[in-house]
Amino acid sequence: MTIERALFAMGGIMVMLTSLLALFHHPYWTWLTLFVGFNCFQSSFTGFCPPAMLMRKFGLKSAAECAIKNND
Predict the structure, then answer these.
(1) What is the distance between the terminal CA atoms of the chain, rounded to a whole angstrom?
(2) How far apart are CA 71 and CA 40, in angstroms?
(3) 4-60 residue pLDDT tens
(4) Is the overall model pTM greater than 0.90, yes or no?
(5) Burial call 37-54: b when 16+ CB within 10 Å, e when fewer
(6) Which helix (H) or strand (E) holds 56?
(7) 5, 47, 11: which is closest to 32 by C-alpha?
(8) Dihedral through CA 41, CA 47, CA 51, CA 54, nearest 10?
(9) How far apart are CA 41 and CA 33, in angstroms?
(10) Would you state the pLDDT for residue 72?
């Protein structure tokens, strides 16, 4: 799995989880949903994404790194 795919999976899980928590527990969970969305939006412009840095430390590779590795 690449970092990009893991980020999409993590974002989707967080949106679904916080939406369910807001629906069944307390509406304030929507603030976390908004934070996740804002982080996705700002990282598309700045390239700064804390979860991506954490995933890299756990050993995941980017799609570009995987493509270079597969061409060798």
Answers:
(1) 19
(2) 30
(3) 999 999 999 999 999 999 999 999 999 999 999 999 999 999 999 999 999 999 999
(4) no
(5) eebbeeeeeeeebebbee
(6) helix 50-57
(7) 11
(8) 180
(9) 12
(10) 66
